């Protein structure tokens, strides 16, 4: 065993080590229970802080078992108060519940579909080659993933991505031309 600060083996064990071990074994579960019952956010960490505070002052405690117990629980109480103060200053942490989140941005597809009529959409889709029309129908209307679409039309996922990209570019071009000529 080495000293963490000097990486050298100590000549003698630290003073009070056996006593501290006994104190820790005797009171650790009680302190942990107290801190947990009092609503400390991380009771195990707070318990460790309590015993780290007690260790250097263990030799100065008077009053026997009752004095030691009183000292340990006064330190635990102080840590609990500190934790409650810290919690009161920090914002309330609530778990995220997606089903209660009402924020929604509409997708580009939804916005486009709202702007033009179904007849216009069909007209634009008619301007596409059959395989591009099929990919867009499966991806946008059917809601399939790239992999599912690829499996459905017996093409690779890369081919589906390219067909979708080309189809969307062509639709953009057709829509721009139609918009330009519309009075």
What does this structure look like?
With 183 residues, this protein is mainly α. Helices cover 66% and strands 0% of the residues. The protein is built from 8 helices and no strands. Helix 1 packs antiparallel against helix 2 and helix 2 crosses helix 3. The longest helix is centred in the middle third of the chain and has 26 residues. It is rod-shaped.
Provide a brief overview of the structure.
The protein has 183 residues and is an all-alpha fold. The chain has helices at 17-37, 43-54, 64-89, 108-115, 118-126, 130-141, 146-153, 157-181.
Task: Itemize the secondary structure elements and their pairings.
Layout: H1 17-37, H2 43-54, H3 64-89, H4 108-115, H5 118-126, H6 130-141, H7 146-153, H8 157-181
Helix pairs in contact: 1-2, 1-3, 2-3, 6-8, 7-8
């Amino acid at each position: 065993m080495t000293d963490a600060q000097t990486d050298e083996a100590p000549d003698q064990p630290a003073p009070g080590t056996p006593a501290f071990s006994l104190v820790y074994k005797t009171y650790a579960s009680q302190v942990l229970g107290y801190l947990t019952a009092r609503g400390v956010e991380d009771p195990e960490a707070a318990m460790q802080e309590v015993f780290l505070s007690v260790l250097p002052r263990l030799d100065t405690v008077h009053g026997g078992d009752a004095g030691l117990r009183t000292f340990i629980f006064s330190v635990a109480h102080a840590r609990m108060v500190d934790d409650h103060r810290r919690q009161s200053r920090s914002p309330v942490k609530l778990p995220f519940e997606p089903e209660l989140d009402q924020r929604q941005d509409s997708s580009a597809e939804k916005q486009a579909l709202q702007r033009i009529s179904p007849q216009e959409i069909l007209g634009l889709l008619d301007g596409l080659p059959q395989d591009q029309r099929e990919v867009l129908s499966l991806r946008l209307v059917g809601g399939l993933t790239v992999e599912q679409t690829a499996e459905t039309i017996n093409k690779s996922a890369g081919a589906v991505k390219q067909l979708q990209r080309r189809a969307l570019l062509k639709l953009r071009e057709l829509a721009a031309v139609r918009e330009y000529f519309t009075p």
